[in-house]
Design goal:
Mib_Herc2; zinc ion binding; 2 domains; Wheat Germ Agglutinin (Isolectin 2), domain 1; zinc-finger; mainly beta
Length: 161
């Protein structure tokens, strides 16, 4: 479910060329279509490059976006400790190893290749979500996230007065 504050990247049905400035560029969901309206399955994304555009989030069965991180939207797995960095209370998406007993990773540790890359993980987007099985990371293509991160050049956005 898409909510305001989610950090997103291109999804499986992306059809908008380089509207986001290219693969790996990150944006934030800033508006979600109202339920019961024609735009109920769409969202507006403010890209870190300054552009703001609407995208399909289930509209006619298409998904233009994929959730990169949801910690900014307040998602927390309070009682879970990351076995990679030992952080208490995983903020954002939780990754649970399906092979090892009680082994969990936070997003940065999972994407930083902590733990065995041949192991299958489940991805939990919220504390009460059903886990979605991920394919093993071994041999996967990595795409660098691009946007407002440490060392990024920041410019005035569309709402600057």
């Amino acid at each position: 479910m898409l909510v305001v504050g989610l950090r997103v990247v291109r999804g499986p049905d992306w059809a908008w060329d380089d509207q986001d400035r290219g693969e790996g560029h990150v944006g934030t969901v800033v508006e979600v279509g109202k339920a019961g309206t024609k735009v109920s399955q769409t969202v507006f994304v403010q890209w870190d490059n300054g552009d703001k555009t609407n995208y399909r989030a289930g509209y006619k069965g298409s998904y233009d976006l994929r959730v990169l991180d949801n910690a900014q939207a307040g998602v927390k797995h309070a009682s879970i400790i990351c076995d990679g960095c030992r952080c208490q209370g995983i903020a954002g998406i939780r990754y649970k190893c399906t092979r090892c007993y009680d082994y969990d990773l936070c997003g940065p540790c999972y994407h930083g290749d902590k733990h065995d890359l041949n192991h299958v993980f489940q991805r939990f987007e919220t504390a009460n979500a059903v886990g979605v099985e991920m394919t093993p990371r071994k041999g996967s293509t990595k795409i660098q996230s691009r946007g407002i991160f440490i060392g990024a050049k920041v410019v005035r956005g569309t709402d600057w007065e």
